[in-house]
TrEMBL record:
<dbReference type="Pfam" id="PF10604">
    <property type="entry name" value="Polyketide_cyc2"/>
</dbReference>
<dbReference type="InterPro" id="IPR023393">
    <property type="entry name" value="START-like_dom_sf"/>
</dbReference>
<protein>
    <recommendedName>
        <fullName>Polyketide cyclase / dehydrase and lipid transport</fullName>
    </recommendedName>
</protein>
<dbReference type="InterPro" id="IPR019587">
    <property type="entry name" value="Polyketide_cyclase/dehydratase"/>
</dbReference>
Length: 178
């Protein structure tokens, strides 16, 4: 009986330590990746300013080709919205709406992952020699949820590779179109 009490007490102490340490972790998750594309911003902007156009280079749609996509609002720019639904755990269900669009400079979106929370994403287009540097960013307020804070530590590892793949897809698409 003493052994069971010690094991239980040890588990409680471990859980309390993990919860306490979580409040020392960052309260915001941020991911950012950049790529140089040999094209002017005007050739890239249409592919980041329309949820329909992102289908052509998205790093996630290959995971579940059966993902159900629906669009609403205008075809591009502020209000253009994508809703997706998938049973695949790495795709899930959610929505993304363009909330800011500055032609050939930047696009900002609001993401809603349902019970998984919300986030913001952005595409920044900056002149880079004869081409354009495209930076794809993501940030999410993790609040005070200890589990979210621990997950936030892993966000760059989980999402960074997808952002790199997506930017590479975008680069290939734009440069072969030019």
């Amino acid at each position: 009986m003493k052994v069971i009490k010690r094991i239980f007490a040890g588990l409680v102490v471990c859980i309390l330590v993990l919860v306490a340490v979580s409040y020392l972790l960052p309260g915001k998750a941020e991911v950012s990746r950049s790529i140089a594309i040999d094209a002017p911003p005007s050739a890239i902007f249409p592919y980041v300013n329309s949820m329909q156009e992102t289908e052509k280079w998205s790093p996630w749609l290959h995971r579940d080709p059966e993902t159900k996509l629906t669009y609403s609002g205008p075809a591009a720019g502020v209000g253009n919205t994508l809703n997706w639904a998938s049973d695949h755990p790495q795709v899930g269900t959610g929505s993304q709406e363009i909330v800011e669009s500055v032609e050939n400079q930047r696009v900002r979106t609001a993401l809603d992952f349902g019970p998984m929370g919300t986030a913001a994403a952005s595409f920044i287009l900056e002149p880079d020699g004869a081409g354009t540097r495209v930076t794809w960013g993501f940030d999410s307020d993790l609040g005070l949820n200890p589990i979210s804070r621990w997950m936030g530590v892993m966000m760059d590892t989980w999402v960074g590779e997808d952002y790199e793949r997506g930017l590479t897809n975008l680069k290939e698409l734009v440069e072969t179109q030019g």
